[in-house]
Every structure is written in C-alpha cells, then in structure tokens.
Amino acid sequence: MRTARLFLCLVFPAVLFSLLYCIIVIIINKVRIQFRNPYKSFFIFPAGRLFMAYLALYRKWRPRTFTEVVGQKHISIPLQRAIEQDRLAHAYLFSGPRGTGKTSMAKILAKAVNCLHPNGVNPCNECQSCREINAGSSLDVYEIDAASNRGIEEIRALRESVRTLPAVSRKKVYIIDEVHMLTKEAFNALLKTLEEPPSHVLFILATTEPEKIPLTILSRCQRYEFHRISVEDIKNHLLYVAKESHLPLTEEAADLIAVRADGGLRDALSLLDQCSSASESKVLDAPAVYDLLGLTGKDMILDLSHHIFNGDSSSALSLFYRILQGGKEPASILRDLLEHFRNLMICKVNPKAPEFSQYGSQVETLRSDASRLPAPYLDALFDYLHEALHETKRSSSPRLSAEMGLLHLCRMKGSKSLDSLAQRVAQLEEEVSRLKRGALSIPQSPSPSPIPAPAPSYPAAPSSPAPVPASPIPAAPAAFSAPEPPAPSDMTPRPAVQRKDRPPVRETPRAPAPMPAAGPAENMPGQPAAAPSSQPDASLIDPKTYPAIWQKVLSYFMSIRRIDVFTCLRKSTLIYCTHTRAIVSAPQQFLVAAGNNKSYQKVAAEAFAKVTGSPIQMHTVLKGGEEEAAAFTLLQSAPKAAPSSPSTEMAEKPMQDYRPVSRDRIPEKDLKDPSLNEALKIMADCDIYEKTES
Fold first, then answer.
1. Rounded to the nearest 10 degrees, how much is the dihedral formed by the CA atoms of 197, 114, 83, 121?
2. I need a labelling partner for 256 at 20 to 30 A (CA). Which of 394, 427, 611, 672 fits?
3. Helix %, strand %, coil % for the chain, to 5?
4. Domain range summary for the chain, segments of one domain joined by +
5. pLDDT value for 178
6. Which residues are registered as beta bridge partners of 144?
7. What is the three-state SS of 8-64?
8. Beta bridge partners of 578
9. Is residue 587 within 8 Å of residue 623, measured between CB atoms?
10. Which of 11, 8, 9 is nearest to 19 (CA)?
11. What are the pLDDT digits (tens) for 349-382?
C-alpha cells in the first residue's frame, strides 16, 4: 500500500504533466498556421514556461500564395495559368532587383506543384508537403546557394541526384539562388541536364545579375523579370503589416520607409523592423524614422535649399553645422540634398509623382520651388553637388569638402537669372550710348600681368562689315610689361586712317555692341588700348586647330586641379580665337555667366598661355544667340590664317615667365612629385614648360 501511494504521489503527477504538455504542443502545431509563423520553435525551460523564438518581419510576412505576392502580377498570373493548364516548363529563370520576391515566388511554385490539397492553383499551406517546404525540411525541394556551391563538383552531385525519383512529392524542385555565381565549368556541366531533365524534375534559377549568365543557359529557361515594387504598393503593405503586428506606424513614416527601400519589399520590412525595435516613442512617425535611420528631415533640407537659392552662405553654413551637431555625416547631408534637387527636377515634369508624399504637408513648398526655379539652374546645382558628393566621399576631410561645395552652390545663386533678355538689352543700350559719347575706355592696370575683364556682349552681325585697315596691326608678343600712359584721344595706333575709313557711330543704321575688350597684348607696345571692334583680327589662329587647342585648355584645368572651371567649360566650344582673344559658346545661360567670371577668365588666360604662348582673353557667349552669330560672321570675314599647330605658335611666341623643356630634361626630383606625373599624363600631347628664374 505504501508503494502504491508513493507511486501515485510521485510518478502519476509527472506522467500527467507530460501528457498535458504533449497535448498542448500538438494543438499548437495544428493551429500555428493561423499565426502565419510556421518557423517558430518551442523550448521548455526549467521553470516550465513556453518560449517562442522571435522572427524578423520579412520572414514572418513572407508570401505563401501567389495572391500574397506584392507588385508582381505580371509573373504570378502567367504561372497560375501554366499550373491550371498543366503547361509548366522544366526550367525557369527569375531575375530582378533584390527583395522583390524571387525566392518567395520559387517556393510558392514548388509548393503549388507538390501540394496535396491545392486551393485552386494556390498551395494550401496545411498539408504535409507544404509544411515541410515552408520549414525547409522537404526531401524533394532543394535550395542551393550558388555563391557557396559554385564549383563543378557540386553540380556533378546535383546531376547524380536528378536521376533518382522523388521521395514523397510529385516533383523534385531545385531552387538555385544567385545562379550567376557559378563558374564557367559548372555552367557547362549543368547545361545538358538543364536542357533535357527528367519529367519529375523542375529547375528554378534566381539571380540579380542575369547578364552574367551564359546565353546557352538563358535559352533553355523561361525567363521572368521581377520589377521594382512601387512606392504606393510598399506603403500599403507596410501599413497592413503594422496593423496586424500592432505597430503604431503613421502614413508619413510609411511613405518615408517605402521611398528609402528603393523598390525592395524585403528592405522595407527590415527598415520597419529596425525602427519598431529602436523606437522609444509610442507612435512611429516620420521624425522618429528620420532619427532612427540617420536621415535629414525634409524641413531642414528645404531650409538649406532655400539658403542656397538665395545665395545666403552664412545661413547655409549655420544650418549645416546644426545638422552636423545632430549626428549626421557630411556625405549623408549632401546625399539628402542631392535627392531633394532630384525631386525638384522631377517635380517640374510630374508635380504629382507618388514619391513626393514623403514631404507631407510641405509638398506644396516643393512644387512652388520647382515651378519658379529654371531647369538649367537646377541642372547646374545637381551636377556640381553630385561631383561635390563624390569628392566628399574620397576626401580625407569630408567636412571641409562639404563646406566648400555648399559655398560654391550659394555663389551660383545669381546665374539663374543673370543675363536675361531685358538685362542684355539694357547692357547693349548702355554700351552704345557710351560709344556715342566717346567715353568707352579700357582701364590700364599697373600690375605686371593685367588681364582685363571682357565686355558683357558681342555685336550682332553688321549689315556691311567695316573695312580692314590697309596694313593690319600685328599682335604683340605676350610680354608682361607695364603699359605706357594712354593718349587722351587716340583709339588706334593710326588715328588718321581710322577716322577716314571708319564712319561715325551716329551715321550707322544700327550701332553694334562692342566685342570683348582685348588685353594689353592686343595692341602695339607703347600704344593705348584700342576700343573693341567688329573688324576681323589679322592674328587669327587657324580654325582647324580650335578643337585641339580647346581640349588642351580643358586638360590644363584638370592638371592644376581647377575642377570648378573644367566643369563649367567642359560643354563649351571654341568658335573664334586670335592671339589676344577667344570666344567660346556655352549651351546654357548659367554657364555663360560662370564662364565670364573674372577668376575663371584669369585661369583661362593662363591655360591659353600654356597652350598657345599668348595670354588670350576668353569670353563666353550663349550657343545659338546673336553673339555667337556675330562671332561666326567675324570668323568668315577674317583673312585666311596659315595652318599652324598650337605647339608651333607657342614656340614662335614663348612666354616671358616660362620656357619650353623636353620631357627627358625634367629633373628626377620633380618626376617624383605625384601631382606633376598626373599632369603629364593628362597633358601628354602638350608641350612642357618650366618657370624661368627671375
């Protein structure tokens, strides 16, 4: 009796507890599919409590049927029809960006062909075959990672496995992910099997880079291209997941996450999981997402862009420092600003684009800015900011590079409206009136190398070109010497001939605006500066050499690290050039304004001096404008120049401060300079000069 009582008191409760636990586990396993989480595992702790391992949202909400796949109806519908009509191919290739559902679609297709109780063409996800495939334990569905199994030995083992019949399912399914990582030998080994596999085998290949797959493989597969999922579809799915998971996600935050996901639903769910785990607030709103993802708020980006548009460098830098204090990196700030400029350019074309919803209540401010800002100005801001961002990423001092980029963007403020038609007309009228009064003069600088600023415009083509003087004035050597005091009334070296041959300005039916002012090298030594004239210059350089000259000038800008000048002038074309002045045409107005900047002209004069031997004064005109037409007229009326190369011109007119030197004469210590070596590579076709000792 005592033994029986002891058994009942000790053993029976343990047996009863074990039995109850088994019943509970069986019940949970039967209904767990309703919780959309077949991967949860159960453990017993010593305390006797039940624990469920946490699953990431992108795993928990992986689509299980064709209808649950988001944004890929152009693929799910044909596959459903093929299953319904029993016309499945033996091999499929799923290609597209990451996170768009390639692997999920492959597993759904594998379940659909092996499901014991299909719901139409969709798998039931309740039968033994579906549960095993969902759990990754099916004996007849093989998921192979080609990145780690890319050799020929693995493919040979696959070929041997293909010959055997399925264990319990209808078909053997081989899902080869990242198939482009296979070696050439592995592809060749797979080729014959992929072309004529047994009837019980189905191949599903998935890749993000289909261009790396041999054409022989592509021709043996039915290819389906997965598209990037739209922002609206990702947003709606995020809101649905948040609602079902009891996450307090706002629509603005969902918009922001959807845009940052860049068309990948898996990335969007990962970002949502990250934000929900790290957020300390009860509501997951847009400011919280900005802070958690390390992004700059749209209000700050809008304020920063307004400071740039207004040319307010001080306010722009102050706001930039405040954003830096918030923990943002300089490259991240420039990247967000670059995205904002991109949105402005897109808004000019499509003001109702869905991605603008991330601006929330400030979307009207975005549209207002896009409507009032000219497209060339936005194009210039985007191009320069893109280069500044690359420079910031490569720089050893990212903050310094970002600051200089912002300052340059602020200095571009006036280019969006500079040289408008009304301003042009006013400038031309002012110059004509000054010519009539005889008050036009070019100031002489006492500096040893004067480079005067060009006149703002060129004349329109005159109805009858002015006569060329009997003996043209040759161009003076490019010597930098102090000029003599100008004569009070002389405009040319031979005033008598000029007054006789040239009619008064008031008698001409149309008074042309002046050509750009020529530098001191344009006049004879000891003579005063001449007034700009529309007469052809006798020192015209052969127009056939213009492309070569201009390319060498651009190369010089790169060799001296003047990336700003190169960026401004790289799309320009040299259309007129003498030994004293040059005219280049730019495709956009803001480039014209920047090219006529005095600092840019100084660098350009230095570049022309290196290439041609003369400190040529450059002036930029608008392509297709009246000034360009006047320059072409001037070029046609000029006397034919003798063919010459830039290097010849430079040898005939050496600079006073530089002397030519051959490559083999460069000292060894100078060749060790990395900057000099880079410059020599860029300017390999130019003559090499060195500074003369004073």
1. -170
2. 394
3. 55, 10, 40
4. 59-225, 231-293, 298-416, 543-691
5. 92
6. 176
7. HHHHHHHHHHHHHHHHHHHHHHHHHHHHCCCCCCEEECCCCCEEECCCCHHHHCCCC
8. 540
9. yes
10. 11
11. 888 887 787 787 788 888 888 888 888 888 888 8
Same topology, domains 298-416 and 543-691? Answer is no
Q: What is the structure's pLDDT at 514?
A: 43
**Whether pLDDT at 204 is above 70:** yes
Tens digit of each residue's pLDDT (9 = 90 or more) over 428-450? 666 667 666 654 444 444 444 44
The string of pLDDT tens digits covering residues 517-554 is 434 333 333 333 333 344 445 578 888 888 889 888 88
Upper half-sphere CA count for residue 14 (Cβ side, 13 Å): 6
Domain 543-691 belongs to what topology? Answer: GMP Synthetase; Chain A, domain 3 (3.30.300)
Instruction: State the CATH architecture for 231-293.
Output: Orthogonal Bundle (1.10)
What's the burial of 544, exposed, middle or buried (CB within 10 Å: 0-12/13-18/19+)? Answer: exposed
Q: At what angle do helices 298-310 and 330-349 cross, to 10 degrees?
A: 80
Domain 298-416, CATH: 1.20.272.10
The token duo for 493 is: 């070296």
The CA distances from residue 310 to 334, 378, 416, 417, 487, in Å, are 18, 13, 11, 12, 45
By DSSP bridging, strand 581-586 and strand 201-207 are: unpaired
pTM: 0.51
Give, in degrees to the nearest 5, the angle at Cα 380 between 377 and 383: 150
CATH superfamily, region 59-225? P-loop containing nucleotide triphosphate hydrolases (3.40.50.300)
Asked if residue 37 has pLDDT above 60, the reply is no
Report the alpha-carbon distance of residue 25 to residue 279 in Å, rounded. Answer: 34
